[in-house]
Design a protein that fits this description.
- By secondary structure, the chain is α+β, with helices and mostly antiparallel strands.
- It folds into 2 domains: 33 residues; 46 residues, no CATH class.
- Helices cover 55% and strands 16% of the residues.
- It has 3 helices and 2 strands.
- Strands 1-2 form a two-stranded antiparallel sheet.
- It is rod-shaped and about 90 Å long.
Amino acid sequence: MPLLVRTDAAADVAGGKRRLAVILAVVAVCLGAFGAWSALRPGSYDVQRAGCVTATIPSSTGGGLLHECGAGAQALCKHALRHRDSLSLRIRPACRQAGLG
């Protein structure tokens, strides 16, 4: 004959709900912290520094950022100033702003 053990189903449900509430609270706090961090620290691509070129160019997903510093920026601007294609024309203002063109 099997041994019948009586469990308190209400206690199991309450414990599961409490555990779920704690997990959801932790996830909400993490998402909030990440949202605040990303809003307060947007990154460095939006800052134009001396010797660095950042240009917005068309890409397959809409717009893309082209970012170069140092020798890469000098080569990019040199190429953009020598050519008249649409990409070079979009890069030239960023080169002028960086003092490279």
